[in-house]
Design a protein that fits this description.
Order of helices and strands: HEEHEEEEH
Number of helices: 3
Number of strands: 6
Strand order of the largest sheet: 1-4-3-2-5-6
Distance between the termini: 19 Å
Oligomer: single chain
Radius of gyration: 24 Å
Structural class: alpha+beta
Helix content: 10-25%
Length: 182
């Protein structure tokens, strides 16, 4: 049996390692419900499914839960609401519309500033509001505030692509070394 590495075996080994590094770990997707006013620049009968909502910082706008209690969500009876500065983003159409608005979320929902949500469904609400069934997308994006806190990070962070690149370089160096007979 030859101990020489074939190109095929090197590629197979690096491909398996690279694929394992790039496959994300299984995690549950978080869904929740939000209420927004009918948005300027968006028609009232427009299907918002597939649009995005980005939550900015919390705001002091208060909404009485009774004002949104009539939304058509199943088992919906919020006792308190949190308000966020938000943006409704249309990335489906060529004009990529977006508008700022106040987004109301049930107080017991686990949402953070900077999170991005995709709209999976809509329901009717009273007084010109729209109920959204949303699912969190990716990681949160920091929202700038007047206060900044120093980072305790040491050095740059490297993601999965840098790790795969390092692995590939190491395997290539080993293959080169093996070919030269060392």
């Amino acid at each position: 049996m030859s101990s020489a590495w074939s190109r095929r075996s090197v590629l197979a080994a690096t491909g398996a390692v690279g694929a394992a590094a790039l496959v994300p770990t299984a995690s549950a997707r978080y869904t929740t419900r939000m209420v927004i006013p009918s948005a300027d620049g968006f028609t009232g009968d427009e299907d918002l499914v597939g649009y995005f909502v980005h939550l900015g910082s919390t705001t002091d706008v208060s909404t009485d839960p009774a004002d949104v209690d009539g939304c058509g969500f199943e088992n919906w009876s919020p006792t308190d609401l949190s308000a966020f500065d938000g943006r409704l983003l249309d990335r489906l159409d060529e004009d990529h519309r977006e508008t700022e608005m106040t987004v109301h979320v049930a107080g017991d929902a686990e949402v953070d500033t900077g999170t991005l949500w995709i709209i999976n469904g809509t329901v009717e609400c009273p007084d010109g509001q729209v109920g959204l069934e949303v699912e969190q997308v990716g990681a949160s994006v920091p929202v700038s505030t007047a206060e900044s806190t120093p980072s305790s990070a040491i050095g740059p962070g490297f993601g999965p692509l840098a790790a795969v690149g390092g692995l590939l370089a190491g395997v290539a160096a080993l293959a080169r070394r093996h070919r030269s007979g060392e």
